[in-house]
Amino acid sequence: MASNGPCLVVNVHSPGQELMKFTAQKDDRVKKINEHIRSKTKVPVKNQMLLLGSKTLNPEKKLSHYWLDPSTTIHLTLKVVEPSDEELQVFLREMDDGKKYPLRIRPTSSVSQVKEVIKATTGVPPEAQIVSCNGKKLEEGKIMADYRIQKGSIFFLSRFCIGG
């Protein structure tokens, strides 16, 4: 395996956790450190925030973006960010007639729970609903956070058409 420059030594501190040490290349993305942390702590990457001093590191950026000196040990602080479960107002637009309805859901609401809310609002049974948001069809077994639903998001409702 070819090396792409000197290794960086990365120490990650987090309250209540043992000090974590990793080695990385300057061309590695911050996300690689996040993945190492996830494997050691089981904290999902999306709930991790890495700080270098007061600067929050972007998981998509390379370590070299932060002008890290390979001759020193980098000390990062891990903050665990719990996803908010506050109620969000979103909107439902029916594709058939263009009607728009306000809905109240939570990031932890399942697709089936949201389909029940839609049934209560529109009368369309869940098995007849095709619901999409942010360009993606909502799938059973997922929750709204999987689709990055935010306040003001618009859901689109189509109906299954039987026989054509």
Describe the protein's architecture and organization.
The chain is an alpha+beta fold. The protein has two domains: 7-80, Ubiquitin-like (UB roll) (Roll); 88-159, Roll (Ubiquitin-like (UB roll)), CATH 3.10.20. The chain is built from two helices and ten strands, in the order ββαβββββαβββ.
Indicate how many domains the architecture comprises.
2
Specify Rg, calculated over alpha carbons.
22 Å
Strand order of the main beta sheet, please?
2-1-5-3-4
Question: Largest sheet, described in full?
Answer: 5 strands, mixed
Report the uncertain regions: none
The secondary-structure class comes to alpha+beta
Q: State the share of residues found in helices, binned by percent.
A: 10-25%
Bulk shape: elongated
Lay out the secondary structure:
Layout: E1 7-13, E2 20-25, H1 30-41, E3 48-52, E4 55-56, E5 73-80, E6 88-94, E7 100-105, H2 111-122, E8 129-133, E9 136-137, E10 154-159
Keywords:
5-stranded mixed beta sheet, Ubiquitin-like (UB roll), alpha+beta, 164 residues, elongated, 33% strand
Short description:
This protein has 164 residues and is an alpha+beta fold. 15% of the residues lie in helices and 33% in strands. A hairpin with a 6-residue loop joins strand 1 (7-13) and strand 2.
